[in-house]
Amino acid sequence: MFKRNRTLAWAINQFRNRSLQGLSYRYDRGFSRPTRIIFCVTLRCNIKCKQCSIWSMEKPQELTTDEWKKVIYDLRRWIGPTRVQLAGGETFVRKDITEIIRYATQNDVLTGVVTNGTMITRELAREIVDSGLGYIHVSIDGIKPDTHDYIRGIPGVYDKAMASIGYLAEASRGSGMSICMATIIMKRNMHELVDLVKWVEKNGLDGIIFNPLGPTIDSDPEWYKKTDLWFDDLKEINRVLDELIKLKKKGAKILNPPEQFEAMKRYFEKPYLTMVERCMVGITNLSITCDGNIHTCFKMPPLGNIREITPEKAWNSEEARRVRKKIKNCDIHCSQFGNFVYRRNILSEVVRFIKYG
Fold first, then answer.
1. How far is 291 from 41, CA to CA, in rounded Å?
2. Is the dihedral of CA 266, 272, 276, 277 positive or negative?
3. Residue 108 above 60 pLDDT?
4. Which residues, at least 6 apart from 299, have a Cβ–Cβ distance to it below 8 Å?
5. Within 10 Å of residue 60's Cβ, how many Cβ atoms?
6. In whole angstroms, what is the distance from residue 186 CA to residue 30 CA?
7. Exposure of 187 by Cβ count < 10 A (0-12 exposed, 13-18 middle, 19+ buried)?
8. Using H for helix, E for strand and C for coil, what is the string for the chain?
9. Which of 133, 171, 258, 314 could connect to 126 by a Cys-Cys bridge, CB 3.0–4.6 Å?
10. Long-range contact list for 17-22, CB < 8 A, 24+ apart?
């Protein structure tokens, strides 16, 4: 079993890069290195979530195991101690995913996974822990099975997801791997959010993280008018958010800071607004798609493809500078208070990393 690399070296590296981000933003250059790295390892998914269109997208040819290993090697050599989040689609559709995680661990790259949990058996849970995974977020969108299954589009997935949490908890005792719940805030489940926090506390999970319902990559600006998941009672969702803020301040294991919930109130009131605060994804985020395209923002053109260029060269390229300028003047609709975009202060980020991975 590998030791998880929650090290001082990571915190120093994170602080160094965060301190240079203001300068990078001003001059549209990559003086800092990315502090939020996401691998979208597959677009394949075994469920049909109502808030997501990935399951219906055309599936490109995915990077091979060796190609992902080369990406990890190149990133570690360039950035130093770092953290990568693996997402999809459903991450565990890939049969080689624990091999990829194990390679990252061996190269001092901490990995985290977002999963719907439905494919995790007791045997796979042990394999996941043994690979050295740093943290895993299991998506649960309701305390009631009917709520979760409705949102996730397949009957019976609530029971499978909850079972996966049990398998992971059993396998990870003493390992240091963090297990958290991930929940999307929407009309259908807003009255169950507080109970989910209490469930996390009662069952000894490491935390719960909330994301606001947002547009998909291919959404139009009025997407929220075309879904039954959007809110029609702002007063009630604000009351729920206030309750989550109170729980957080009392020490509940909620990973979001209180100010993010306050920002969500503004977003839920006016979801049609484009980015009202400066968007930093051009100098904070590095995302690599399952077919190798390199992005800072998924809604902007790629900087290149890892089959042709390393992440470092793409990050420092003239194309990256052009994209950063576009992001500064972006009028594309975006969920600006979601966790892939929302930027915590550096102290909050380091404390969260030490506690939860």
1. 8
2. positive
3. yes
4. 217, 330, 332, 334
5. 13
6. 36
7. middle
8. CCCCCCCHHHHHHHHHHHHHHHHHHHHCCCCCCCCEEEEECCCCCCCCCCCCCHHHCCCCCCCCHHHHHHHHHHHHHHHCCEEEEEECCCHHHCCCHHHHHHHHHHCCEEEEEEECCCCCCHHHHHHHHHCCCCEEEEECCCCCHHHHHHHHCCCCHHHHHHHHHHHHHHHCCCCCCEEEEEEEECHHHHHHHHHHHHHHHHCCCCEEEEEECCCCCCCCCCHHHHCCCCCCCHHHHHHHHHHHHHHHHCCCCECCCHHHHHHHHHHHHCCCCCCCCCCCHHHHEEEECCCCEEECCCCCCCCEECCCCCHHHHHCCHHHHHHHHHHHCCCCCCCCCCCCCCCCCHHHHHHHHHHHC
9. 171
10. 18/346, 18/349, 19/346, 21/280, 21/283, 21/284
Structure tokens at 4: 């998880």
pLDDT surpasses 80 at 7: no
Residue pLDDT, tens place only, 30-83:
889 999 999 999 999 999 998 887 777 788 999 999 999 999 999 999 999 899
* Joined tokens for residue 89: 């689609």
Q: Give the per-residue pLDDT at 340.
A: 46
The span from the CA of 25 to the CA of 42, in Å, is 30
* Cα Dmax for the chain: 51
